[in-house]
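Morning!

This is the sequence you dropped in the shared folder:
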Amino acid sequence: MSGRQGGKAKPLKAKKKGPKDLDEDDVAHQQKMRDEKKKLAEAAKKAGGKGPLTSGGIKKSGKK
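The structure's back. Tokens below.
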């Protein structure tokens, strides 16, 4: 048994996809998605600078 026959067979490479034909609606939708992604990233960055929102631990009531 030679080295080439043993073990897993390598999967075939997938063909590269050709250029897509995009119309104006597709381009506008992609731009909208990019803008939303940027806004979310900025909001996450802004929120990440602050400390934790919850104080954590067991909450105790004022009654004894």
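Headline: The two ends are 80 Å apart (CA to CA).

More detail when I'm at my desk.
O.
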